[in-house]
Amino acid sequence: VAMDEQRYLYVSDIKKHEVRRYQLGEKNGTLVAGGNGEGDGLNQLRVPRYLFVSRDHSVYVSDHKNHRITKWNKGAKKGIVVAGGQGQGNALTQLSHPQGIFVDTLSTLYVADDRNHRVMRWTQGAKEGTVVAGGNGTGAGANQFSYPVGLSFDRHGNLYAVDYGNNRVQRFSIE
């Protein structure tokens, strides 16, 4: 789930492979991403997990089983691949089961790349990402993860990553 500044609630449905936006008290909601069955087309999702809603109401979706992050501009019928989308893998152009996402004010995307045990950064328009934390194999070391899932930033620019397999939250200073 995610919420925008107008208090609309965005909910990903991993069974229907879609994301809907709800107003308080609304039952059906408005389709904002996916909704065309499970698949890898630009109008489809495959197990949408985490969401991020930007100030312009674009919805970023971690398309878990398509190994990509898609951005759905307000009113769009198709998403735009903004990270991954080159099949499952560990190259800098690939993701493996992405989870938590965060987009900063410069539209830089941060992704918890779950099965690659790393957090990646994708600047707007970039064809490949950079590893900002982890990426040193699975483990419990200071710069290792065992399945990172959630991401957040504080007002000082510190990155917090939920390290699921190690039962901890790690903090990183990102330049």
From TrEMBL:
Annotated coiled-coil segments of the chain: none
SUPFAM superfamilies found in the cross-reference section: Calcium-dependent phosphotriesterase (SSF63829)
Positions annotated as NHL repeat: 139-175
Pfam family, one: NHL
Keywords: Glycoprotein, Repeat, Signal
InterPro entries per record: 6-blade_b-propeller_TolB-like, NHL_repeat
GO cellular component: extracellular region
CDD domains (alphabetical): NHL
Name of this chain's protein: NHL repeat-containing protein
